[in-house]
Amino acid sequence: MERIGVGERRARIGRRHRLAPSCQATGPLEATEAVVVLHATDPATVHLSVAARVPGSEVAGTERALYDDRTLIRMLGMRRTVFVAPTAFAPVIQAACTEDIAMKQRKLLVKHLVEAGIGPDADAAGKWLRAVEESTATALALRGSATANELSADEPRLRTRLSMAEGKSYAAQPYVTSRVLFQLAAEGRIVRGRPIGTWLSGQHQWSPAENWLPGGLGDKLPAEDARAELARAWLTSFGPGTAADLQWWSGWTLGQTKKALTAVDAVEVDLDGAVGYVLPGDEGPETEVEPWVALLPALDPTPMGWKERDWYLGDYKPQLFDNTGNVGPTVWVNGRIVGGWGQPESGEVRFRLLEDVGAEATRAIEVEAAKWTSWLAGVRVTPRFRSPLEKTLSQA
């Protein structure tokens, strides 16, 4: 079994994730393809992750790729998370992950509808849900694009309230609106379009999938074939990694993960005692890159690419991740995390190193922080999921 050490794994990050200066991407699509998808739960992450990989990138360029050229698309994917994906790759994600999520979420929503008194049983609640979905889809088709509020005006049943955690201190009665739109999107019938407001906004207009893209998301792929293609893409960008890494990243079962690795003829390698996997022919060393530093945003796909993170994170998880496993803004030197960054009210990007990286690397980080301060131009980005170190720096 070929051994791939920590140094080699870190070298791969610089080249394959387009973070070393000589390896950076030419545009938003290439930057996204380098890491398979961009996390989009926090809308700022999309733009900052692109800017970290594309010299001279601007918000307008990423918006053009998303909303004009539509080479990128915002969609639900792995782990029931919203991502920005290359549009050509969206059918793979849909078949490999999203369709399973849609089936599970439909059952859960029907259960909640029964609990809210919408029909005496699952069959009746399911029929009610289908009727509301069809009416909503028709209203959206007539408008061309619409917000959730506009669709609620067209289809008043979207204002039906659910009863969540009744009797508990955190009980709530949310409208069914977001759940119905979530379901339609998960099934590939509607897509998230332009944001309502600035590039930091988490609310979007909705459009019918076939209006947004010719032919919608395209032909349905067999699930096992799609999972193999997604595993191939992950191994290309994040390999070597363990089966546990791929299972966590994809949200699959262990059985689905093993089948996908077998389907791509994944090769076992030794990761300092653990069994990892690479694609056939990818066992050899990566071409060396020059020394590099990077400031990556919260939820950037690089630190979120593996479940087992000690080889690039060290002992810094308590300072840089929140309690649910979401990474905050991080500082990188040559493929490993060495600190974090944040913005106080002034908008200036400030960082804190958690170890001594030497004078030369520290100066390079200072230059990079100044670049980010200039790029943000006074816009203060507060991550949706905040790490302890980012909170501290934001109050400095």
Could you explain the architecture of this structure?
The chain is α+β, with helices and mostly antiparallel strands. Among the domains are: 103-212, Arc Repressor Mutant, subunit A; 309-394, no CATH class. The chain is 44% helix and 14% strand. The chain has helices at 6-16, 28-34, 43-51, 59-68, 90-115, 122-143, 148-154, 177-186, 209-212, 223-238, 243-250, 254-263, 310-313, 317-320, 359-376, 388-394; strands spanning 2-3, 38-39, 72-76, 82-86, 190-195, 204-208, 267-271, 274-278, 293-296, 330-333, 336-342, 350-353. Strand 11 and strand 12 form a beta hairpin. Helix 11 (243-250) crosses helix 12. The longest helix has 26 residues, at 90-115. The model has no long low-confidence stretch (mean pLDDT 96).
Q: Topology, pairings included?
A:
Blueprint: E1 2-3, H1 6-16, H2 28-34, E2 38-39, H3 43-51, H4 59-68, E3 72-76, E4 82-86, H5 90-115, H6 122-143, H7 148-154, H8 177-186, E5 190-195, E6 204-208, H9 209-212, H10 223-238, H11 243-250, H12 254-263, E7 267-271, E8 274-278, E9 293-296, H13 310-313, H14 317-320, E10 330-333, E11 336-342, E12 350-353, H15 359-376, H16 388-394
Parallel strand pairs: 1-7
Antiparallel strand pairs: 2-4, 3-4, 5-6, 7-8, 9-10, 10-11, 11-12
Tell me the distance between the termini.
Answer: 49 Å
Structural class: alpha+beta
Secondary-structure element pattern, one letter each = EHHEHHEEHHHHEEHHHHEEEHHEEEHH
Question: How helical, in percent, are the residues?
Answer: 40-55%
Number of helical elements: 16
> What share of the residues does DSSP label as strand, in percent?
5-15%
Question: What is the 3D shape?
Answer: globular
Q: Remind me, CATH topology of the domain at 103-212?
A: Arc Repressor Mutant, subunit A
For the record, the CATH architecture of the domain at 103-212 stands as Orthogonal Bundle
CATH class of the domain at 103-212: Mainly Alpha
Largest sheet, described in full? Answer: 4 strands, antiparallel
**Strands in their spatial order, largest beta sheet:** 9-10-11-12
Report the radius of gyration as a whole number of Å. 22 Å
Count of β-strands: 12
Low-confidence stretches: none
Keywords: DNA-binding
Pfam families: AlkZ-like
GO molecular function: DNA binding
Protein name: Winged helix DNA-binding protein
